[in-house]
Structure formats: structure tokens, C-alpha cells
């Protein structure tokens, strides 16, 4: 089966397992919202964990919304990197690596927020006790090579932001790290950004909503979802199509 010419996606959404996300951002509610908006493909990208993804993949079955196994990891340099995988197995292998490199700190719910795991009925079933909103011990270079080795794609997140972006933390994009795609915040126009950053012209740009609230899902690319097509679409679909279309 082949991928359509383009599809509408939101590949940066946080579930209630991310401490900064709203409690109503359960996997079931996220998928329902994506169905309502007519999105073709979404990714739930929780901070440093894939805990809600197995359930979310089950809940997405038969809805017409393709869910990409994903995570937003924070590297040792405090760079946020979106990690997309072709299979749940590859994501879970990555999740084990991240777990090993998470600092052994407990979550302070009052300060950071709740970190909630859900079940097939979309009810809360457990809390993740370890603090997730923190830098792991993985370097950017190790992150990108491990994700790539597992068949995934690593995309530095919200590169235009003054914190937790590859440019805010490093000031440049290392040439020896295999990065082809950058994510830009949803409120920026890619063309405008490139006019002020011509040095980034050789990269492909993706936009996700980075939504922490249900109402923000799909708010990227100027409408209900980012239009994934062209060279970026072809690159992403090389691994999307074998599992999602
Ligand atoms: Zn982020
Ligand atoms: Zn995010």
C-alpha cells in the first residue's frame, strides 16, 4: 500500500504522563480529538518515556488515525529531541535505554505535575514515580545514533525556542550528527524563519503543536495539522508506510 501524496499530521503531542500536560490529555481523548480534526497521523511524544504508547496504539486501531511510536527525550545538554520509530518494539528498546539514563529522582507532583499511566478504558491506573521532566545522561550524539540504529528518526524539537532547543543549548547543529529534519514551533512560518536563519536552509522542517491541552492538538502548520508532503513526506513515509498505511 502506498502513502497518499500528503497527509495532515501532528507529531508532537503530550499525554497525561508528561507532568506538564493537562490531566484530560489521556491517550483516548487525544485520539478522539485527532479523529474529530480529521488528522491522518499523530505522535504522542511524552518526556523521556513511552509508558502510554502501547495502550495508545491499541486505542488508535480502527479509528483511521495512525499513531507513530514516539518520545521526546531530553539530552544531557538539555536539548529536546523528538524520536520517531517504525515499530513499538523499536520504541520500547529505546525506552529501556532512556530509563537506564534517567537520574534517580522522584517526581514532586506539586511542583512538576502528575505523571499518569492509563489503561484500555482510558482510566488512570498508575503514577510514574520517577521524575521525567529532567535531562537524561544521554548526549545528543548518542541519542541520534541510538535512535537511528533502531530504525528511527531523531528530530531536534522547537529549534527556535530560547530554552531546551539545539540552538539555545549548543548554538549550532553539529555536522557529525545525523540530523536531516528540524522541528519549528507551530506559531512560526518556516519561510520567515529561514530568511533569518539561511544557514539552516539544507534542513527539512516539521511543525508539531507541542500540545499540552486537547484544544491545541492539530494547531500547527497554520490549520488542522501540518501538511506532510514533498521531500519531508517522502523521507518520513519511508518508514511510516510499512506500518501505518
Ligand atoms: Zn520540548
Ligand atoms: Zn514537547
Radius of gyration: 17 Å
Distance between the termini: 6 Å
The CATH homology group name: Metal-dependent hydrolases
CATH architecture grouping: Alpha-Beta Barrel
Biggest sheet details: 4 strands, mixed
Estimated helix fraction: 25-40%
Shape descriptor:
globular
Reading off the top of the CATH hierarchy, the class is best stated as: Alpha Beta
Q: What compounds sit in this structure? A: zinc ion
Number of domains: 1
Strand order of the largest sheet: 3-2-1-13
- The chain-level mean pLDDT equals 92
Enter the CATH topology name. TIM Barrel
The count of β-strands is 13
Strand fraction: 15-25%
Question: Please, could you describe this protein's structure?
Answer:
This protein is an alpha/beta fold and 245 residues long. It has one domain: TIM Barrel, CATH 3.20.20. The chain has 8 helices and 13 strands. The chain has helices at residues 27-37, 53-60, 88-100, 109-112, 140-149, 166-169, 190-196, 230-244, and strands at residues 7-13, 41-44, 66-68, 70-74, 80-84, 116-118, 124-127, 153-156, 181-184, 204-207, 219-220, 223-224, 226-228. The strands form 5 sheets. Strands 3-2-1-13 form a 4-stranded mixed beta sheet. Strands 4-5-8 form a 3-stranded antiparallel beta sheet, covered by helices on one side. The longest helix is centred in the last third of the chain and has 15 residues, at 230-244. The termini are close together. The mean pLDDT is 92. Bound molecules: zinc ion (2 copies). The site of one zinc ion has 5 residues, from loops. One zinc ion binds next to loops.
